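Journal club prep — side note

Before the paper discussion, L.F. wants everyone to see what a predicted structure for a comparable chain looks like in token form. Sequence:
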Amino acid sequence: MSIILENLTKRYDSHPVVNNVSLEVADGEFFVLLGSSGSGKTTILTMIAGLVAIDQGRVLLHGRDVTHLPTQGRRVGFVFQHYALFQHMTVADNIEFGLRVRKVAAAERRIRRDELLELVGLAGLGNRMPRQLSGGQQQRVALARALAHRPDVLLLDEPLGALDAKIRVELRRTLKAIQRELGIAAILVTHDQEEAFELADRLGVMSFGRLLEVGAPEELYRQPQTEFVATFLGTANLLVGQATPGGVQVGPHHFPLPEHLHLLNGSQRVQLLFRPEDVALAGTVEELDCPSFGRGEVEQITFGGFYERLRLRLPPIRGVRPIAPPVAYGRDAMAIEVTRAQDQANRFPLQPGQLVWVGVRQIHALSHPGLRFLIPSDGSPEAQVALAIAHPIARLSHGRVTLLGHGLTGEALQRHLQETKEQLGSGLAALETRTTTLDLAEAVAEEVEHHPVDLVVLPAGAPETRSRTVEAFLQTGEHHLLLVPGEQALPEKALICIATGEPGKEDVLFAGRLLRHLGAEATLLSILPRTATSPHAQEKTSRFLESGIRTLEMLGVPARLTIRTGRVAEEIVHEMEEGGHDLLVLGAPLTNRERQLTLDGVTGQVLNQALDHPILIVRSFVRIRYEPFLRAPKVRTTILKEIIF
């Protein structure tokens, strides 16, 4: 293998931007790391090149452990997105620079320079200055310079991102041909899916520091194993259905599975994936040559050159949750994305507002992960009370539970875990146990870093210390938190407290996802200050809450709205008492610039009240993109010299 990465981890401010990534790239393979901005792609490249220190893990290049070697000793070629050429040097001098500092003889440098100029299609342009070249030509110079010292591996950081579409297409072909001719192992990072599909022998999909799936482009597109990859690679229609012998049931609709995919348990909830090109449209149900998905209304038509793209609006299917396209906040219908060739569009022209029958030619089924629960337990009465409500919630939501034993040692700990597993019994999608000797807040932080979860369930603790306790458990990870103050029945009436804005939408969506499994109803509560008594303020808040009600009802959760006026924390407590609610849903504040979460505001004030019902703390996230210092021109030049040396 040319490149082996073993459990690479990199943290900034204790936040893992690369999280336990392992990967092997074969000799001569063109590997593409694909992911959105901030997913950790570039950080992996800089760790391989030695430009960023590795917190954990190893890097091996052609069998050599280079983890602790300086950049100059790793024999890597690095191509930047923004060329990073020496502007005061000619094209020839740029290409020769690394050879010159290595004391390579002038005659040998010229031979190598001319070989590379011809290889990248710039023969005869060696005397030009970079400013006299187009962007595409400058990137060819950067590639030639990276290859000049005959590196063992080639690393490319979105090298085509700054170019226009036509030049990108031309350079993709050139890049692939050069890599093939040289037989060099290459890793390219990009967020451009078309680029990844065209260049990659294999590609890996990253999300928030984790390498989720690796495989051939067609394999990952047609048969992804995770929800993120299914929706990230191309456009996806993704719904939650039920596995049946030989197929998948989505409400009243049944779709047969190909024989090689009959791998699902008959009682298992699954995700049904079909791509836009797998959708058939017809004027009548009899004209469909595939299973029907019902009748929909054409909402939007977009010209895409050879293809026509359509978005259809379909009525909701009872008991079915659409995942992609996501249901927009406040919508009471589901959407289906369709792509068809222009000859199909010409044979059966459609217009917005027209009704059409929808069929699905081909599907792929993914195991539905369900909600993931982390339940710490030390055997105390408080922990047992939290476990008593967490278990039925996890069972009803088809959840996967991790039981984290703490506060005990040796035989006492093992006996407690065994007794608890027997107490939980069957009915869970999955149950595993782990143990820790760390402080509980540290243990939860470490657990969610390595095994992300949706919901951590904890005893509520004393009211006067509750907000500080919650802060400690929400400082890391992306989980929500359920606090259980005492023995409880399953919630039947939830109070969801929201303010208008994007975080409020996330509060409604996660609460609805949980409540739908419990058969509970919801009240959306928004509180206006006494000064905001204008009809406009009331109307704006009402519209937002009404949209939230439609969203909840789309998920199968009956809902109503309430608007109160006064001090926010006081009014929330009053509504809980007067409305007979048995679950309180609060949104956690966003983290600050230092990624710290503080509960000095309304959420903290409510938490410190002596409420005797469970409290669900829902987190909203503003992603912080960690740029590994490659943007400043002066710094790029310094790094470039390190690579070339």
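L.F.'s comment for the group: The two ends are 24 Å apart (CA to CA). Keep this in mind when we get to the figures.
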